[in-house]
Amino acid sequence: MSTTAFIWGDQLASYRFTAQHPLNPRRLQLTVELLGRMGLIGDEQAPIVAPRYAEADELEAVHDVAYLEAVRAASADPEPRAGYATFGLGSEDVPLVPGMDEAARLVCGATLTAAEWVMTGRATRAFSIAGGLHHARRAEAAGFCIYNDLAIAIRWLQRHYGSRVMYIDIDAHHGDGVQWLCYDDPGVLTVSFHESGAFLFPGTGFIDELGDGDGYGYSVNVPLDAHTEDGSFLESFNGLVPELAAHFRPDVILLQAGCDAHVLDPLTHLRCTTGLYEHVTRLACELADRYCGGRLIATGGGGYAVYTVVPRAWALVWGALRGLRLDDELPLDWCRSLRLESGRDVPATLRDPTEAFPPAPRRAEIAANNRRTVTAVRQQVLPLLSGWGLAF
Ligand SMILES: [Zn+2]
Predict the structure, then answer these.
(1) Per-residue pLDDT tens digits for 137-193
(2) Is 173 a catalytic residue?
(3) Which member of 174, 241, 288, 324 lies 3.0 to 4.6 Å from 205 by CB, making a disulfide possible if both were Cys?
(4) 65: CA distance to ligand 1 center in Å?
């Protein structure tokens, strides 16, 4: 039996801004509680591994020192100061809060812990549910993200293992921070599926963002139409990702599994269900088995339907990482306590039943648009594959 590491410690819930802020760490605690209740974490095959803190040199491999100093200062004394705005600090998305540096460093350390477990072979896969802060830039906080744990893990993998990293991002928002940080690096293939930047933050992730210099061709974007459903999302994913992996031949796959593409998510306009996360994770694991000796590191990411979506979506990610087909029924007492806490009705099954949501009114048109997008991406990217072939 292979081992899958679940990276968690209660301190990870300290990554929080204000009571009203949409990024609510309760979603992480609920996921941990659900997995515990289902008996899916905390044994030899699925150890709960405590995160460490990221070290200064690990952060500096991605972020500017002046930025790190500003976060540290704001963390110690969260009073507004001139200059913070240029670093994206003190905005509505990233308010100043005491301890923000420590909390963000722990999130980065959690994803590094996941990478360590996978690369040393202690686990085949690992899940850093608190990670996935894909919007953070070299010298700028953005979109609820202070430090970019994903890019930090990528640099760590390169430095310690010389790994070729395939980064797959299925968050509803474009994985812009990781893309720009790796934009000229042919050792990192970034692939982002997201609601088109025409409709959604951060307004990037179009198909012509292909990379720079030596990294040209190693940045792949699939901007999906608003209201895209599971079928078209999966068709787009399958129409591209296996072929990209076959040509890039990664040593390890990093999967950002933000679950805000769900139809119930309050911040986005995609119409996917929890089943999507099981399918995509399973496909990514198959590719990891084929090319990477199984090595796959998954993180969380967005997900703002705290009670109705996140615990179920990430339980399915976890099941797929472990190669398990989980029963649909959720523990009744868990549903009851969730109903009491949230004051609302909550789904009783892991996977949303097919009839749970009405079909998107323009389903065929949306699927056709996405098909055209994938065809255009293929036409742009695949000719570059021969160049990749020459390099190895
Ligand atoms: Zn998102």
Answers:
(1) 999 999 999 999 999 999 999 999 999 999 999 999 999 999 999 999 999 999 999
(2) no
(3) 174
(4) 27
